[in-house]
Amino acid sequence: MSTAAEITENSTSKMIIMPTNYRRKGNCSRATWTEVMLKMAMQAVRSGNMGVNEASREFKVPYTTLRRRLVRGDTKKKSLGSPSVLGLENERKIVEGCLTVGITCTFSW
């Protein structure tokens, strides 16, 4: 997969935006549930109105996710994948350094 940094121009300088959001190839849908759906499913299971399997189907939250979240008590939806190794501030500094010495910042992974 090859991804190039985007270059945007404003009135004073050029700014390069590093690609930090990964998109999966294909039509696989992952993590399409919301925190509200998860909370409603967890409440239905805890109140005894539904089992985990039924709540999973009804609220469209994966069975394993619902079970794990019930055990942990965690309802916060986290991003998929690992976080950026460098961080946005360090990436910005690298780009600025490249521009200072005249290096074109095109990245291919």
UniProtKB/TrEMBL annotation:
It is found in: Nucleus. InterPro entries: Homeodomain-like_sf (IPR009057), HTH_Psq (IPR007889). Coiled coil: none annotated. Residues 40-76 form the HTH psq-type domain. Gene3D superfamilies: Homeodomain-like. GO terms for molecular function: DNA binding. GO terms for cellular component: nucleus. Its main location: nucleus. Signal peptide: none annotated. This is Uncharacterized protein LOC115885482. It comes from Sitophilus oryzae (Rice weevil).
